[in-house]
Specification:
377 residues; Butyryl-Coa Dehydrogenase, subunit A, domain 1; Butyryl-CoA Dehydrogenase, subunit A, domain 2
């Protein structure tokens, strides 16, 4: 099978990387990271106008692509520049609205794809430990609607979101995949309390407390109690995006380290002439290429009708990029020496980003165990 990118994807990749190199250098990125919003609406508009957001969605949904390879291409470029804008949030929010049955929800999905509205998926409960089926937030039917109570944690971009798409259990308990429903909430809905905070890799997140939140009946997305497959699909798209994002960050860290080894001199010679350091860089290159192969395999499997094939490929990519990304961060910092840990150097921020990406939507251990269980099943 030919995995070479098409001409259209090459053009998008070139344009996106050129935009980021000209308007999203490290100094600009740091200013955005330390801002009260945690991302730049000006940069968001640039990305939307370029087609980076549209590439994540199929033409039938108002996008320009929508395949696994389109998602991987965009997020690899974003990861290399440590972009903080909410493309991952838009990808997952639009994915869970694929089952929308009301005109209002379908219009919201179109607005998300167009980049005019920001919606975020609030799914993770505090004790879930990455299990997509572990939902303790409760949804109780009321006269003509629903009442939601619970807590959602570490929701990126929540403070700037126009809408929340919240998972809640309307029946069952524990890790039961059945009984989970999705609801659309305007951010200004009474009973919602946000506790915002800065994140380790820059940007902002928030915990969302839901206390006696009353919603109309049409806030329900899809069929009551049958949202798990939709959530799993959205999480799968997010896992591919994060794996590609980690791959881009690894490539940037590798290039920064190569440049340092070529320019840093000891005893009149570049330290890169040391054979031991050369061997370490070759080992990193091999690891990164292994991670790239895993991401390509996951991108190819994203639209697979066979759940086991798709989910195993996604978990394999996330576990591989988590393992390799951690090693790349550690090795590159060691080869830089003490300067590798300084705030002023991009490498330290790439390393933090790789560690945090490993823990988003399931870390290496979680996905390795999931890969084994799916294989046994």
């Amino acid at each position: 099978m030919n995995f070479e990118p098409t001409d259209e994807r090459r053009m998008l990749d070139d344009a996106l990387r050129r935009l980021l190199s000209q308007h999203y250098d490290f100094a600009q990125r740091q200013r955005i990271a330390q801002s009260g919003e945690g991302h730049s609406m000006e940069m968001w508009r640039h990305l939307v106008d370029l087609g980076a957001l549209g590439a994540l969605f199929a033409e039938a949904d108002g996008g320009l692509g929508g395949s696994g390879f389109d998602i991987a291409l965009v997020f690899e470029a974003l990861g290399g520049a440590m972009v903080l804008e909410p493309l991952l949030a838009a990808l997952m929010a639009a994915a869970v609205l694929a089952e929308a049955k009301t005109d209002v929800q379908r219009a919201l999905r179109r607005d998300i794809v167009a980049g005019s509205t920001l919606a975020v998926l609030a799914h993770a409960d505090p004790e879930a430990r990455y299990e997509a089926s572990h939902v303790t937030t409760r949804a109780r039917p009321t006269d003509g609607g629903w009442q939601l109570d619970g807590l959602k944690c570490v929701v990126r971009h929540a403070e700037q979101a126009d809408f929340f798409i919240v998972s809640a259990r309307s029946s069952g308990c524990g890790d039961d995949p059945t009984g989970i429903s999705l609801f659309v909430l305007p951010a200004a809905t009474p009973g919602i309390t946000l506790r915002g905070y800065p994140l380790a890799d820059g940007g902002r997140g928030a915990d969302i407390a839901l206390e006696g939140v009353h919603l109309p009946a049409d806030a329900l997305v899809g069929t009551e109690g049958q949202a798990f497959a939709t959530i799993e699909g959205a999480v799968g798209a997010g896992v591919l995006a994060l794996s590609a994002q980690a791959l881009g960050a690894m490539e940037s860290a590798k290039q920064l380290t190569l440049d340092y080894l070529r320019t840093r001199k000891q005893f009149g010679q570049p330290i890169g002439s040391n054979q031991a350091l050369q061997h370490r860089m070759v080992d990193l290159w091999l690891g990164i290429e292994q991670a790239r192969s895993a991401v390509i395999n996951a991108a190819n499997a994203l639209q697979s009708a066979d759940r086991a094939t798709r989910e195993r490929a996604l978990s394999a990519a996330k576990a591989t990029t988590g393992r390799v990304g951690t090693r790349v961060a550690e090795e590159c910092i060691q080869m830089h020496g003490g300067i590798g840990m300084t705030w002023e150097l991009p490498l330290s921020h790439l390393a933090k980003g790789l560690v945090l990406t490993n823990h988003m939507l399931g870390d290496e251990d979680h996905h390795l165990a999931r890969y084994i269980l799916l294989g046994r099943a």
